[in-house]
Amino acid sequence: MTAHASIATPGGISLATGRDVRLASRSGALTGSTAGFAPGFVQANLAILPAKLAFDFLRFCQRNPKPCPVIGVSEPGDPTLSSIGLDLDIRTDVPGYCVYKDGVLVDEPADLKAYWREDLVTFAIGCSLSFEEALMAADIPLRHVEKGVKVPMFRTNIACVPAGPFAGPMVVSMRPMTPANAIRAVQITSRFPSVHGAPIHIGLPEAIGIKDLSKPDYGDAVEILEGEIPVFWACGVTPQSVISAAKIEYALAHGPGMMLCTDLKNSALATG
Amino acid sequence: MTAHASIATPGGISLATGRDVRLASRSGALTGSTAGFAPGFVQANLAILPAKLAFDFLRFCQRNPKPCPVIGVSEPGDPTLSSIGLDLDIRTDVPGYCVYKDGVLVDEPADLKAYWREDLVTFAIGCSLSFEEALMAADIPLRHVEKGVKVPMFRTNIACVPAGPFAGPMVVSMRPMTPANAIRAVQITSRFPSVHGAPIHIGLPEAIGIKDLSKPDYGDAVEILEGEIPVFWACGVTPQSVISAAKIEYALAHGPGMMLCTDLKNSALATG
Fold it and tell me: Are A189 and A199 contacting, i.e. CB atoms less than 8 angstroms apart?
């Protein structure tokens, strides 16, 4: 992933580890996407919600583990999350954030200092960057990475199992592959249930309500070549989509592509 | 597992499926252990807690997935759990229950009709019977099954990651195996992260605070033969032990060995 070689960072700053990226985000040195940085370290989606909704949301995640694989949950009001990052401060350690009120995006601040509340709970949710690293290590090409664009994502007709106010369709990401690579990708990603796990669908987009693969709902379209089939994974955009649809009075999230870089290693997530 | 062939059930009653066992429990026809019944179906540990503690407990489980693999969570006050069992009624569908007040066992009723409250949340937690079935299918002998006794369980010096009032040591189960079978057992149980997953320790009991394998804290001792090593899995007794230690004002659970039999198939839990 070389798409972000152009991101301006002060000369000599290291972005080799999750903590490096967090500190660079905290200092303001890193303001864009985290893709390609902290190789080997788990990057996570963020959902930050009032404590009164925390059990509903965690129950939603338990019921929908493929789109919503939880890798860390904070204590209510506590901006640290030491189980996944040394001296992590969730208010500053991501390059940028989104602030939602009643489901509407109202601000995209560089930090959450003005938006933090004593009743907030942070959920860190696994992200496909972890399994993409394992796929690339197995020499499975990923077209969106090769082209330097965002992975194409689609809303499906697969309903998530609801919990409290949280409900809605599963969002999936799509990667075109040769059949042989698709089979190998099933094997590899099955070892990573805490970062979306095995594909949820393969080969027949219309069967999950996707009419046109050239028109993704999020991200960028990629070409499907002769002899390739589309492979679909549950996507971490699902919880964001569900939180927005629920018109939660107050919710915070990471900015697009600006993930929380943790101290966990992708390799440590493999179950077998 | 033939240990329960002697359990008295009315002539002709089938205990072949999870629902069969639930209905037999509901009617009072089945009053003992569920081991050996509903082969192929997931059996679960139960923890039933007041809603005000539900987020703390679910967060505890998220932080300790090996001893506390959650397979279902109810809506507050709702005695059904349709995601894991058709027309399941948690108040009646287990052969027997335990009632704890302030951490003390105060009753062992046959049903929860007199103990149900509108603020209770049910947690169904995976159980080693699921992975034991996979081990036996691979011709790996399990001594406690051969001997018709309970698996030996030990408190360790491994601290669970706390959440709210829930804290305490991990409890493990032990199965002696030849080294070749131990390796195969790691492979097989790694595929089942939602029912405790891979072993948490192998070979050196003193390293996890176990002084004497002949004196389990729960269950029955089993012999370790020449050429065998002890293999340890995180155990679903851990959440019970933690709930009891937290002296929760009101908590319900299944009776020993009397599990909630679900409609889920063990084979469906495999991640790869």
Answer: yes
